[in-house]
């Protein structure tokens, strides 16, 4: 290939080597020397032309057209380079996405057994915590409204607490915690049941005495009315 075939005519009198021309697009201010050459050449061509004459006006318009044509050619070349660069960038981006998607899938697949175990462990711990919370709730002599529970109701709570303690669920490393909580709840309920039964007996005795007192008063009243009659 001859040197002439490597030259690109950008403007009348402005020729550049293709390799240098293409490289200039990727350099900051790389085309400034070409702009300067075109500017110098255009000014030289327009020098001395008088727009008052038809011939000069025609020549000036022709020079301006040549400048515009050079601009379009250079800009088009740059646009092609941008298109090529974008195509290469797209290939890179597509490859990056393929790597991300496929390796993310591989990562998740490899880790799935661990993920399954962790989820099951979370569910197991949540279930155990629910049992501990139930035992905490049962360890009370009052209902949710703060009202005193009867001995019968407390016996039902004790039955529920005992059932939780004997649950066939695998408490694993939390078995000791559940057992301790169940034991303390049952002890509390035994104490509460004894207190409730004593209280209920006292209330029953008070009611019995009140009933007997009322009966005596009624009998005395009736006897007094009979005597007066």
Describe what this molecule looks like in 3D:
By secondary structure, the protein is mainly α. It is built from five helices and two strands, in the order ββααααα. It has helices spanning 18-24, 32-46, 54-138, 151-165, 175-228, and strands at residues 7-11, 14-17. The chain has a two-stranded antiparallel sheet with strand order 1-2. The longest helix is centred in the middle third of the chain and has 85 residues, at 54-138. The radius of gyration is 51 Å and the shape is rod-shaped. The model has no long low-confidence stretch (mean pLDDT 88).
List keywords for this structure.
single chain; 229 residues; mainly alpha; two-stranded antiparallel ribbon; 5 helices; 2 strands
Low-confidence stretches at least 5 residues in length (pLDDT < 50)?
Answer: none
Shape: rod-shaped
Strand order in the sheet with the most strands:
1-2
Structure summary, number of beta strands: 2
Global mean pLDDT: 88
Number of helices: 5
Q: What share of the residues lie within helices? A: over 70%
How much beta, percentage-wise? under 5%
> Which H/E pattern describes the elements?
EEHHHHH
Structural class, from secondary structure content? Answer: mainly alpha
Query: Major sheet: size, sense and barrel closure?
Result: 2 strands, antiparallel
Radius of gyration: 51 Å
Distance between the termini: 154 Å
């Amino acid at each position: 290939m001859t040197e002439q075939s490597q030259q690109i005519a950008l403007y009348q009198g402005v020729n550049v080597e293709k390799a240098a021309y293409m490289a200039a697009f990727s350099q900051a201010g790389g085309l400034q020397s070409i702009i300067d050459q075109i500017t110098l050449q255009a000014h030289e061509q327009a020098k001395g032309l008088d727009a008052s004459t038809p011939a000069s006006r025609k020549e000036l318009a022709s020079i301006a057209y040549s400048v515009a044509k050079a601009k379009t050619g250079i800009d088009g070349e740059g646009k092609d380079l941008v298109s090529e660069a974008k195509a290469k960038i797209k290939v890179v981006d597509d490859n990056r996405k393929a790597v991300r998607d496929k390796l993310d899938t591989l990562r998740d697949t490899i880790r799935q057994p661990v993920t399954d175990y962790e989820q099951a462990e979370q569910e197991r711990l949540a279930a155990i915590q629910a049992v501990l919370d139930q035992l905490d709730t049962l360890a009370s002599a009052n209902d949710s409204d703060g009202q005193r529970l009867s001995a019968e109701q407390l016996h039902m709570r004790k039955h529920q607490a005992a059932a939780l303690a004997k649950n066939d669920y695998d408490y694993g490393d939390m078995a000791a915690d559940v057992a301790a909580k169940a034991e303390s709840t049952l002890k509390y309920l035994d104490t509460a049941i004894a207190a409730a039964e004593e209280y209920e007996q006292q209330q029953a005795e008070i009611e019995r005495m009140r009933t007997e007192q009322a009966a005596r008063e009624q009998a005395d009243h009736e006897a007094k009315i009979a005597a007066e009659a």
